[in-house]
Amino acid sequence: MSAFEYVDGELRAEAVPLAGIAARHGTPCYVYSRSMLTQAYREFDAAFEGIPHLVCYAMKANSSLAIVDLFARLGSGFDIVSGGELERIVAAGADPRKAVFSGVGKTDAEMEGALAAGILCFNVESASELDHLAAVAGRMGLRAPVSFRVNPDVDPLTHPYISTGLKESKFGIEFAEAPALYRRAAAMPSISVRGIDIHIGSQITDLGPYREAAGKVLGLVDALATDGITLSHIDFGGGLGIRYRDEAPVALADYARMLRGLTGGRREALLFEPGRRLVGEAGVLLTRVRLLKPQATRNFAVVDAAMNDLLRPSLYDAWHAIDPVRPRAAEAKLWDIVGPVCESGDFLGQDRKLALQEGDLLAVRAAGAYAMSMSSNYNSRPRACEVLVDGESTLLIRRRETTAELHAQETRLP
Ligand code: LLP
After folding, report:
1. Average pLDDT of the chain?
2. Are 288 and 22 spatial neighbours (Cβ–Cβ below 8 Å)?
3. Cβ atoms 125, 171 nearer than 8 A
4. CATH for the stretch 34-277
C-alpha cells in the first residue's frame, strides 16, 4: 500500500501533509516514506524465508546515507559499484562484509579498498579484471573472494539502455568462456572462487526472462561441479520492475516461487541485488509550479524541478505520474510539465491533464529510485534536499546544496 495518499483533499506522506514539508524545506525536495522502504525490504527478504539468502540492496538506486543506514539496520547487504559507494556504506555504519562489488571497470585502488574492508565478494566481469584483481590481492597477501558475472544472453524485454544480459552488452562474461575462466581462477593462489551471478536488466515486468536466465545459470553451476568447482552462492541480480503507469510488476511471491522451484534442494546460498524495487515507489519529488505558459500548440507549466533532479524522462522516455498536492476543482487542461533547464529535453511529463495555477505544488511519483542518485548540477543548479517521513515526524536527511558549494572545488586562473 502506498504511504502517499490524499487525506482531506491534500496529498500526504504517511501522516505528514506534503505542503507542510514544502513550506518548511522548500522545493524541489525528495520525500521518502520510511514505512514503505521498510515494508519493501521486509517483503523481499521474507519471500525467501527458510533458505539461506542475502538481499544486497543495489544502492545505486538511492545511495543517500540515511537510506543505506535504514537498510543496514533491517539486515540488508549491499551491491556496490564503486569505491565511492563502498565509502558510503562505511559512512552509513553498514557492514562491508555484506557487500558484493559489481561493475565492469573497477580500478586497482577500488579493489584494494574493498579487499581491505573485507567485502563478501567481487562480481568479476572479464578475464582481464580477474588478472588485475589477482595481482592486487597477491600484493596485499590476501585471497580475493570472486563470483563471475555471466551473461546468459536473455532479452529482459525492457528499455535498451537498461538491458544488460544480451550478448551485445558490455556486461558479464560470455557463457561459453565461463568454464575455462573458472578453472583458471580456481588455480590462482590469490583468488577464492565463491559464486556466480547474473543481472539481465532493470524495470523487468515479466517472469519469463528471469526463468530462462536462472535455468541457464543453474545448468552452468552443475557443469562446473562436474569439473570439481563448487560454488557457495548464486546471485540472481536485481531488475524487478515497479509500477510507474500501468505496468503489472512481477509479484514477489511468484518470483520467489519460481526460484524456489528451480533451486529446491541445492546447497548454494541465494543472493539478490534489488534496487528500484526497494526504493522506487517509496519516494516522490515535490516541486512547485513557477509559472504557466499556455501557447497555441502546447501549454507549458514551468516547475522548479528539472532534468537535473529527475533525468529518467529525458534519458529513457520514462513516464512518472504527476499529481497535484492539493487538487483543484477547476477545469483541467493538458500541460507539459517542464523545468527551467535550457534543453528541450528538460521535461518531467508531457500532456498531463491537470488543473493548475502558479504556485501549486506537484508530486512526481515513484521518484525514490534513480532520481537523486542520478541528479546533477547542470545549469549550476544546486541539488535538492531529501526528507524522510516516519509517521508524523520528518527528518531532513540531506540539506539543499548551496550555490557556493557548487564551485567550492574550483579555482580561477593564476
Ligand atoms: N545489480 C547490478 C549489477 C546492476 O547493474 C543493477 C542496476 C542492479 C543490480 C539493480 O537493478 P534494479 O533492481 O534497480 O533494476 N538508471 C536506470 C536503471 C539503471 C540500472 C543499472 N543497474 C533507470 O533509471 O531506470
Report:
1. 96
2. yes
3. yes
4. 3.20.20.10
Q: Is 238 in the pocket of ligand 1 (CB under 6 A)?
A: yes
Ligand 1 atom with the shortest distance to the CA of 149: 3
Element (H, E) at 70: helix 65-74
Q: Is 296 within 8 Å of 332 (Cβ atoms)? A: no
At 325, give phi and psi (nearest 5°): -70, -40
Q: Is 104 in the pocket of ligand 1 (CB under 6 A)?
A: no
Distance between start and end Cα atoms, the chain? 58
Q: What does the pLDDT look like over 15-36, one tens digit per residue?
A: 999 999 999 999 999 999 999 9
Distance of CA 144 to the CA centre of its chain: 26
The alpha-helical segments, DSSP class H, found in 75-176 are: 83-91, 108-117, 127-140
pTM of the model: 0.97
Tell me phi and psi for residue 31, to 5 degrees: -125, 130
DSSP, res 107: -
Query: What is the Cα–Cα distance from 388 to 289, expressed in whole angstroms?
Result: 23
User: What pLDDT was estimated at residue 155?
Assistant: 85
> Ligand 1: distance of its center to the CA of 218 in Å?
22
pLDDT of residue 163: 73
Check if 121 is active-site: no
Query: How confident is the model over 341-397, as pLDDT tens digits?
Result: 999 999 999 999 999 999 999 999 999 999 999 999 999 999 999 999 999 999 999
Residues 161-188 pLDDT 10s = 777 767 777 888 999 999 999 999 999 9
Task: Name the architecture of domain 4-32+280-406.
Answer: Beta Barrel (2.40)
> Whats the size of the chain, residue-wise?
414
The residue behind cell 543517500 is 64
Say if 4-32+280-406 and 34-277 have the same CATH topology: no
Q: Is the peptide bond before 28 cis (omega within 30 degrees of 0)?
A: yes
Ligand 1 geometric centre to CA of 69 (Å): 20
Ranges of each domain in the chain? 4-32+280-406, 34-277
